[in-house]
Amino acid sequence: MKSKLFILVLSCCLVFPVLAQEKSKKQLKAERELQKQKEIEALIDSKNFVFEAQKAMPQGGRLLNLDYNTYFLKFNEAKTTCDLPFFGRAFNVPYGGGDGGIKFEGVPENIQIEKKKKSYDVKATVKGKDDVYDLFFSVYIDGGASLSVNSNNRAFISYDGEIHAPKPEETKK
Fold first, then answer.
1. What beta strand segments (E) does 30-155 contain?
2. pLDDT, tens digit (0-9, with 9 covering 90-100), for 20-40
């Protein structure tokens, strides 16, 4: 009888610490969120990230889902590259209509980063070949972001999407 009691107590001592060390779903979720928050903070601090647009909201228009193509803005201190669609009013368009979207390469100037409670605001101005673009990012700690683009030759437009680190082949270009 004593040996059965001893085995029962010994097995309880071995099993309960293992159960106590397992993390709950809430703890695992909190750890993932904290890890994502640190990744986003590192991307913003490095001023090197890629914004992928998923929705466009032209001024005075309705929300448009961008399902068919990958539209992006690669933000870097040395060179910013943009390929986003444009829906809205253009004030000064090259003869023949141009390419129709917001496409430019340039060096961002006047970069300002403001940290808020659950987001970051990033402002920059980029001079493209034909226009000057004011970029305003609101980046949330979960990786979601919105981008507002204001230029001299086109109406205001904003995009919803997410940011991530540039892929290795993107940093070489």
1. 48-58, 64-65, 71-76, 80-84, 102-106, 108-115, 119-127, 132-140, 144-151
2. 556 788 888 888 888 888 888
